[in-house]
Amino acid sequence: MTSFPPPRPITARWRSLDCGGLDHAVIAPEEGRIVVRGTIVGARGGAAPYGVYYRLDLDEAWRVRELALGTADGRGLHLLSDGAGHWANGTGEHLPHFDGCHDVDLAGTALTNTLPIRRRPWEAGMRSELKMVYVPFDSFEPVVDLQIYTCVEAGRRFLYEAADRSFSAELSIDADGLVTDYPSLFERVL
């Protein structure tokens, strides 16, 4: 059974393998929460080149409580979560189409793969189907995305699969649950 150490201050950086992008993130445990701040530059998935700032406020169980995104061209997105699968926009208006989503997945970073990995204990062979709030960086219009995580080797490797079977990759992680290698998409460089 995998158990991760308590969150600690970490600075991490990933290089995008498919578009020459870069993601720089700082994970900062604070009183009763974990704050992740990052900056991404790139052009993944045919999107126009982007520069994105993101902030994730997580509770101590790595559940998303707030997501704030801003772009160099002036777009933004602000979502709130109760940590139990209910979402609202930045003004508190309930977003029922995201009910049941417990995580977010941001198009330009491997960091958000850490959230479902850190949130539960895993043994080899365990599989979990998840509903995500996925934010593509071409439109910044969040959508529900179904994803499957399977623990290949506890504390070391996970199989990530799109539920529609359009994509899969075996992710390598470090002792903190951060992705170190995401074949064809991201490589940890710091």
UniProtKB/TrEMBL annotation:
Domain of life of the organism encoding this protein: Bacteria
InterPro entries linked: Glycolipid-bd_prot_put (IPR009467)
Pfam families: Glycolipid_bind
Protein name in the entry: Glycolipid-binding domain-containing protein
Protein's organism: Chenggangzhangella methanolivorans
